Amino acid sequence: MTFRGKRGLQGLLILLGSGAAGAFAWQLAQSPAEKYIAAMDNPHRVLKVDEVIAKLELKPGMIVADIGSGSGSFAIPMAKAIAPDGVLYAVDIDQAMLDHVAARAKEAGVTNIRAVLGEYDDPKLPVKNVDVAFFHRVLHMIEHRQAYLNATARYLAPDGRVVVIDKNREDSPDWMWLNQSDVDTWMAAIGFYPAQHFAVFDDRYFVTYQRPYGKSVLLKKGASKKN
Ligand SMILES: C[S@@+](CC[C@H](N)C(=O)[O-])C[C@H]1O[C@@H](n2cnc3c(N)ncnc32)[C@H](O)[C@@H]1O
User: Fold this and answer.
1) Which of 56, 93, 127, 135 would you label with 119, given CA atoms 20 to 30 Å apart?
2) Residue 216 — pLDDT band, cuts 50, 70, 90?
3) pLDDT band at 45 (very low <50, low <70, confident <90, very high)
């Protein structure tokens, strides 16, 4: 499949996942990046960005990678939360998405975002001290999820967190989603365990994974409870 074809398929998947009409989904599957971006910036998408940022306790100085950053719905506010000295790496495989995020950041006066053109199986981050690697509705789109998570872990600080927000297949009629139990298994294989579960979304799990050492929340009393 060509790159454009893959992006088209992803666009189709997004719209099918959001319950859009089939005819529109088909058109979007053939459309350029602007339409894909418009679908992500649809004001009816439930994102709860402020709640997510609050649960993750993002603070100035942190290093965050928003993987599959898309149109920047999380990247821009997360960058603000970690400013002035924190850095937000916006990672995507689509340069048009990264250009859009850069333009949005410029317009909003946000200067601590770095765009990273990732590879299909590797976010290709330029640093190895990432505090939070964040996946919002992205991991299910990645073909080799376990390989991608393995690659991501190599960029994390010792007590860094991998955050996955995605949807269990039984909670949706669509085939494309990804069960949390699969993510748990892949993460356990590389020594990461579910540290926190946040009940922010009705239709999505929101889990942070950490290694059980250093300043890991796993060592704190009450870890791994629903919050
Ligand atoms: C459904 S969108 C989600 C965007 C954003 N996280 C949000 O929730 O608004 C998925 C994004 O992941 C990107 N993507 C898909 N596969 C990827 C990969 N292997 N590496 C990095 N980004 C990827 C797509 O280009 C797209 O921008």
Assistant:
1) 56
2) confident
3) confident
**Residue 10 near ligand 1, beta carbon < 6 Å:** yes
The preferred substitution site among 92, 138, 201 for testing ligand 1, maximizing ligand atoms within 8 Å of CB, is 138
Residue 206's DSSP bridge partners are 165
CA distance 197 to 163: 10
pTM, whole model, 2 decimals?
0.86
Per-residue pLDDT averaged across 179-189, rounded? 96
Please report, as a single letter, which amino acid is at residue 86. Answer: G
Laid out side by side, the sheet with 130-136 consists of: 113-117, 87-92, 63-67, 130-136, 156-166, 205-210, 193-197
Dihedral pair phi/psi, residue 224, rounded to 5°? 70, 20
Quick one: 49-219 is in which CATH superfamily? Answer: Vaccinia Virus protein VP39 (3.40.50.150)
